[in-house]
What does this fold into?
Amino acid sequence: MKGKADQLAPLEELAQRSADGDENAFAEIYGTLLDPVFRYLYWNLNSREDAEDLAEEVFLRCLVNIGAYDQGRGPFKAWAFRIAHNLLVDHQRRRGRRGEEELQEDLGDGAASAPESLEEEERARVLREVLKELPSRQRQVIAMKYFAEMSNAEVAKTMGRSEGAVNALQHRALRHLGKLLEERGWK
It folds into this structure.
């Protein structure tokens, strides 16, 4: 029979080790989740600087509160993304809508994938524009699923919704995105 430690998923095990004082364990968590958290924040904020700042805050809060993480309430990744989501919502409330000139930042190194050609840059620009037109919850699902590469179960836990609700939101969001892209001549 396997012990409790054998049943833990890697991030959950790392969280427990980190809570017990293992600094290397938190470094592994950071290395595993930094890119997905950054991509999620970036595609919601369209600002590299703001996404970097919020990502730092996410990991600071994870580190400070890691002892409060309860694996019985869901995966560690969902817990960390819930922190990211809450910080994102707070940030958007404080800052309000950004002007179009601020949304034209270069993705640069470490972003979701820097465009390698003018055509890719144009696609990224159009995608950012149409994402802004989606309702907030649909935009969140798309960012978590495709930019942060989260499973439907992780998205559901993060958003406090059922997997069925996430599936429905994802379906509606993809249909809406497709319609908006088609209206702009992208097929």
